[in-house]
Amino acid sequence: MKEEGKHKKAKKYGMVINLDECTGCGACMVACMAENNVPFKEDESNKLDSIAWMRVYKLTNGKSYPEADICYLPRPCMHCEGDHGHSPCVSVCPATATDYSHETGIVSQIYTRCFGCRYCMGACPYHARYFNWWDPVWPEGSTKYLSPNVSPRMRGVVEKCSFCFHRYQLAMDKAYFEGRTELEEDEYQTSCTQACPAGAITFGDLNNPEHKVHQLAKPDNKHGGRPGNPNVFRLLERLGTNPKVYYMSSREWVRRAGDNYLDNEDFAKNYRR
Amino acid sequence: MDSALIPEGVKRCSFGKFALGIIIVGGVLLWGVYAMLLVWLKGLNQTNMNDFYGFALWIWADLGVIALGGGAFFTGLLRYVIGKDELKNIINCAVLIGFICYSSALLILAIDIGQPLRGWFIFWHANVHSMLTEVAFCLSCYFAVLTIEYIPLILENRQLNKVPFFHNLAHNMHEVMAIFAATGAFLSFFHQGSLGGVAGVLYGRPFAVREGIFIWPWTFFLFTWSAAAYGPCFTLFVTRLMEKITGKKLVKQNVINLLAKISGWTMGTYIIAKIIDTWYWAAATAPALGLNLIDFYSNNPFYGIWILIAEIVVCGVIPAAILLTPKGRSNSTLLFTAVSLACIGVLINRWVMVLQVMAVPVMTFENWVMYIPSWQEVATTILPVAYGVILVMISFRYLPIFPQERELNP
Question: What is the tally of structural domains in chain B?
């Protein structure tokens, strides 16, 4: 089994989120919280210290009627590869409590090893990492509904989206049991992908040309995975974080909102640098 | 009451006055200890930090005291390795300040982590790619060196020194101090640098990121350089402050002048390097990421371009110019102004590299995030200051910190 594993082609699990289809309903956020035992506060009005592995941002084009336009942008962890796995957060963690898997492309978080220095949070430009400022308090009776596959986190450690890694583990267990080492596309899907009523989120292996994510994003692995599809972009592409979450929109202002540009810059020419 | 413990030939205030001072500062210390215990027992929810502001007041204080404590390693290097013999008259003070600053830094780090009982993971599960790992290792080792440098000073207490073993131990430790001074300088180069690297490697943060050489961003070298430049200024600042409080001349002017001159040259060259670094970052690094310099200093209620001018010009160029001129160094008011401005300058630099980094929005659809520390954060930041004052008071009273004091105050 080990030998077979060695020759497996490395996966690069990622997402394409179609922003033209996202309605901002928040089902992805709810599904994520339920699936991953994400703790919540009694009063969630202060968003600066509330945990949302998947967070939906509301973007506007800043124009007035009739040209006013909005866009909802779901933001999970980007599972950045950086340069050969040196993602912004992984390279700074002093205790190796977060790691980049070259087998799956997923950035993990080891809760029992994290000692809460929060350097990774400072390093992440997407604010995808959250700190447990409090111990989780589950309303009476609700512990029965916690997922048994995901360990709840204690106070003082950092957590973040794992691309529902426990689902990958379950799918792989099943595959091994059936004598397979490869997964079908639909065998491993994240909870947000499945919960989206508009079908705006597509999840799969970016390295596999048969997977829909690959076909939508057309990632160019020779150039840091940048998208080949002109309507597809990544957040803060220019920083070199090499994220695995791609966004798709036919609207130029939305694509432009994905990164910073100088006022005099030719956006059409530079936006996929 | 305690005259037997006071060094021979020097005058100290009455024990009652001294005890009153200790009690007052001790009250502040206890307030800080109470806040510290609250944080340890209840967690970091006692602070006003949040998911956008993961690094805040404490990390600034940490970087600040380490920079100010840089006088210890640089003065030690000058005295023991380069051979500037006159500095033996101020080295004890530099070591004492360094010891206070570094023990404070370690305490702050222990308070700042979410799971204090797992603090040792940084050594056990060390990630060699992380600048913070380098900080932890070098900081701990250098604190050990500072302790070794401070011990002979304690053993020189009038009563302790009567014990032959302690007397000989102190003497022998002095003999080999050059080795520890060199080790301290080596360790300091790396931990001061890696603290600069902590910000410089954040390639997801355009405000902090810098190019560099091999694995080291330019901030690595700038932090070491600035600690060497500004650290001795803090030694001079504390010495002058003690002279004012005690009403006595404690160090001869030629010693002050020498350290001020060296500090002036180090600061002058540092500030040129800092200006070049800032210019390159503003003209090349940030625009390549789609940002203008002014983006980092506008659209928010606090961080204006004034902070850049205050750090580089008012608290950088001006003190360096004063310290570089013989007139500036010999005029005590000008000298005190220069070293005070310098201390503020390095603290602004560390503030900017921690708190402004967190405040600047990176994604286009986000806004600046402002942060005001909670009283618990303020109290735990004042805690090391109170502890430092107490240690200085005790050390000054009972240990021969200033070898020239007796000669200058017959």
Answer: 1
Range of the domain at B226: 3-408
In A18-37, the residues whose Cβ lies within 8 Å of chain B are: none
Tokens of A165: 């890694």
Q: What is the b/e burial string over B229-256, where b = at least 16 CB atoms within 10 angstroms of the residue's CB?
A: bbbbbbbbbbbbebbeebeeebbbeebb
For residue A116, the chain B residues in CB contact (below 8 A) are: 44, 113-115, 118
Nearest to B113 among A59, A115, A122 (CB): A115
Using only the alpha carbons of chain B, give its radius of gyration: 22
Report pLDDT digits (tens) over A220-252. Answer: 988 889 999 999 999 999 999 999 999 999 999
Contact A207, A10 (CB under 8 A): yes
Query: What is the per-residue pLDDT for A269?
Result: 64
Domain limits, chain A:
2-270
Tell me which chain A residues have a C-beta less than 8 angstroms from the C-beta of B50. Answer: 46, 48-49, 133
Q: Report, in angstroms and rounded to the nearest whole number, the Rg of chain A calculated over CA atoms.
A: 19
**pLDDT for residue A2:** 46
From B46, which residue of chain A is nearest by alpha-carbon distance? Answer: A133
Contact B132 A127 (CB under 8 A): no
pLDDT at A8: 67
Query: Reduced to 3 states, what is the DSSP secondary structure of residue A56?
Result: strand
DSSP B103-138: HHHHHHHHHHSS-GGGTTHHHHT--TT-HHHHHHHH
Q: How many CB pairs under 8 A join A and B?
A: 165
Complex ipTM value: 0.93
Please report residues of A whose CB lies closer than 8 A to that of B202.
Answer: 88, 92, 122-123
Q: Domain A2-270 maps to which CATH number in 3.40.630.30, 3.40.190.10, 3.30.70.20, 3.60.9.10?
A: 3.30.70.20
Q: A74 preceded by cis ω (within 30°)?
A: no
pLDDT tens digits for range A77-105: 999 999 888 999 999 999 999 999 999 99
Listed residue (A255, A216, A178, A269) closest to A15, CA to CA: A216
